[in-house]
Design goal:
Strand order of the largest sheet: 3-2-1-4
Bound molecules: S-adenosylmethionine
CATH class: Alpha Beta
Distance between the termini: 23 Å
Shape: globular
Strand content: 5-15%
Oligomer: single chain
Number of domains: 1
Low-confidence stretches: 1-20
Structural class: alpha/beta
Number of strands: 4
Largest sheet: 4 strands, parallel
Length: about 280
């Protein structure tokens, strides 16, 4: 899950909609952000504020990025293993998004994904005064609990095979692995091979005790010790377009999950993706 760092790009034709703001103010703001140099300054300023607030809340934003930069050779290797050169990217996916000029197709976005997802959880539960990992856990567990209660009501058999579509760096996938520990196949699909490479790195943090130094684990991923290696080991990271999955895999699943994905797709993408899921 990513937190938007900016509302519009100078090179898009769409404008920001502030439905409750007067039309004049809306036009002024749109005119300002469509001026590229000013937009860049605004983007940097809002990034700076976001990161400072995140770190104050206990999210190790900079340390996480530094750690992943230092381990970029490993990540590049995972990237090369995972990337499917036959994948073609839809137009919406190759433009500015979440404040990154090339959207989800770059390392920086991949390094910052998990921290941004934690910011969202911290903001969601701000009134509860939880620490950030507790807020994150609460948000993610409420999602898997909803799936569990649905299953209790409508299904007699366990979910043995699960697809997590639009898995990003694997946050939703890990929570699925924990919620359904007897899963036999857990396939995680995403369009960004950068995100999938980071997902695989996180998987190795769980699976291999000596993969990273204990102090890095404590600082960056203390919560990952609560995830069972037995089901995390079942995850396969698959580079594929959700709108075109039949070309990528002739698989079938008991459960197909789209967590925080559909809002990122244009309407036509939502329709084609849903054909496969429901
Ligand atoms: C907000 S993230 C959600 C990540 C994750 N499911 C979670 O709950 O944390 C949305 C993800 O959808 C992916 N995505 C967007 N369009 C896609 C498509 N057409 N096919 C596959 N993945 C897509 C993005 O790359 C991104 O990683």
């Amino acid at each position: 899950m990513m937190v938007p760092l900016s509302a519009a790009s100078p090179d898009t034709t769409s404008s920001i909609t502030f439905s409750s703001k007067p039309v004049l103010l809306k036009s002024i703001v749109n005119a300002l952000v469509s001026f590229a140099p000013l937009f860049t300054i605004m983007k940097l300023a809002s990034r700076g504020t976001l990161i400072k607030t995140a770190e104050k809340d206990g999210i190790p934003w900079t340390s996480m990025e530094d750690h992943l930069i230092q381990n970029n050779e490993k990540l590049k290797y995972y990237f090369s293993e995972i990337e499917n050169a036959a994948v073609t990217y839809p137009k919406y996916y190759v433009q500015q998004f979440h404040g990154y000029d090339d959207g989800n197709l770059n390392w920086k976005a991949a390094y910052e994904c998990e921290s941004a997802a934690k910011v969202l959880a911290a903001r969601t539960y701000a009134e509860l005064n939880l620490n950030v990992d507790a807020a994150f856990d609460r948000m993610r567990t409420s999602f898997t609990n909803s799936i569990k209660s649905y299953a209790l009501q409508y299904r007699s058999a366990a979910f043995n095979t699960i697809a997590d579509i639009g898995c990003s760096v694997g946050i939703s996938t890990f929570y699925l692995a924990r919620a359904f520990p007897s899963v036999e196949k857990l396939d995680a699909y995403d369009l960004s091979p950068y995100f999938l490479a980071v997902a695989k790195y996180r998987q190795n943090v769980v699976l291999d005790e000596s993969f990273i130094a204990q102090e890095d684990k404590q600082l960056l991923w203390p919560h990952l010790s609560n995830f069972p290696a037995s089901s995390i080991s079942k995850i396969r990271w698959l580079h594929s377009n959700a709108e075109n999955m039949k070309d990528a895999a002739s698989e079938s699943y008991d459960l197909m999950v789209l967590s925080s994905v559909l809002h990122e797709l244009p309407q036509v993408g939502q329709r084609t993706t849903k054909q496969y899921d429901f």
